[in-house]
Amino acid sequence: MREYVLAINPGSTSTKVAVFKGKENLFETRLDHPLEELNQYKKITDQYLLRKNIILAWLQEIAIHSENLLAVVGRGGLLRPIPGGTYKITEEMIKDLKAGVQGEHASNLGGILAKAIADIEGIDAYIVDPVSVDEFEDVARVSGMPEIQRRSLGHALNIKAVGHSVAADLNKNFQEVNLIVAHLGGGISVAPVKLGRLVDYNNANEAGPFSPERAGDLPTGDLAKLCFSGEYTYNEIKEKLRGKGGLTAYLLTNNAIEVEKRIEEGDQRAKLIYDAMCYQIAKEIGAMATVLNGRIDAIVLTGGIAHSSYVTSNIAERVSFIAPVMIYAGEDEMKALNEGVLRVIRREENSKIYEEEVLTHDKKL
Ligand SMILES: Nc1ncnc2c1ncn2[C@@H]1O[C@H](COP(=O)(O)OP(=O)(O)OP(=O)(O)O)[C@@H](O)[C@H]1O
Ligand SMILES: CCCC(=O)O
Q1: The pLDDT value given to residue 359
Q2: Are residues 292 and 178 in the same domain?
Q3: Pocket of ligand 1, candidates 278, 305, 311, 315: which has the most ligand atoms within 8 Å of its Cβ, to mutate?
Q4: Distance separating alpha carbons of residues 331 and 192, to the nearest angstrom
């Protein structure tokens, strides 16, 4: 009997996998990939066969047979800009994931792996709320330089999933509330969520507050000088902006728990940098409050760093005058992927077709 949903969430060095029966999470694990293995491949998407075989071996280990799978869902990546929702994976989407139309990202593998495993049984494969969800109002796209448009890239999957939970806790529908959701992880996304739509974003890879691994907003003149100083290659600059920026650049760690330990031991520099990160997050939340004209049901702090009362109280002190601050620490992307599929299977929502949404969503300013 076909009754299980397999969820696949690829990260840079591991693939999280889970098997659900209805809402119940039966098995979940993180399959680690040693760097020596991954480094053999030039492009992230070239790792697909290696990861597929490891997932199939794991399914065998837990005695889940592919003929009992009902659907497979993967985390969607840097696709073309599309509205949020659950998408049936099509060949057109696979082409774009392989080409990396908005860049390389481990999540590009999510859809490719889901489709490859679903195809073994001829069942449906989906992605849910990919990184490239774009529900911007046009005014949010204008950057100040016509050659550059502001892009919507961020932690849409967790932000939307948490938004649904917050709305339910407020006894409302997601489409009835205005929220500012700050996802505080390795990257940081701050999003004004207007009646269920992500109408603006900082773009977690390139702007907004700095984060454990990313530099965030920078003074543009000084950045241009650094780029042309002759000291760095393009790839080195890219790494300084994303991967080796933020806390990692200042404190040589991306681990917020380690930073807090240093602060407790009296490290004043660690305190200054960490407080600056909280300050920038609060400032971004304040800016996003204007997007919602100040009509906000709640400010929501989520992601791994929202476990820290140091961070949440620091931010709350600055922003609680705007709206009540609610904390939903951690993330449950596996549950969010499964629920996206369940909404379609239970006909609470229609699945979308990527190429149709891209066509109707192509923005030229
Ligand atoms: N209890 C805690 N207190 C403070 N920081 C914490 C705690 N637990 C986790 N973190 C921090 O959260 C960060 C990782 O968050 P998270 O797991 O959401 O990120 P990720 O999944 O690696 O990246 P992303 O969220 O950008 O996809 C790390 O800096 C980690 O040290
Ligand atoms: C673009 C930000 C999303 C992520 O880092 O996972």
Answers
A1: 76
A2: yes
A3: 305
A4: 18
pLDDT of residue 209: 98
Residue whose CA lies nearest to ligand 2 atom number 6: 155
CA distances from 54 to 73, 172, 335 (A): 16, 41, 21
- Answer yes or no: do 277 and 355 share one domain: no
Based on the structure, what is the number of domains in the chain? 2
Q: How far is the CA of 187 from the centre of ligand 2 (A)?
A: 6
Q: Who contacts 66 (Cβ-Cβ below 8 Å, separation ≥6)? A: 56, 59, 117, 120, 121
**φ and ψ at residue 26, rounded to 5 degrees:** -85, -45
pLDDT of 99-120, one tens digit each?
999 988 899 999 999 999 999 9
Task: Tell me the residue range of the domain where 249 lies.
Answer: 156-330
Residues 22 and 131 in one domain: yes
Q: Are 292 and 192 in contact, with CB atoms under 8 Å apart?
A: yes
In angstroms, what is the span from residue 361 Cα to ligand 1's centroid?
A: 33
Q: Are residues 57 and 205 in the same domain?
A: no
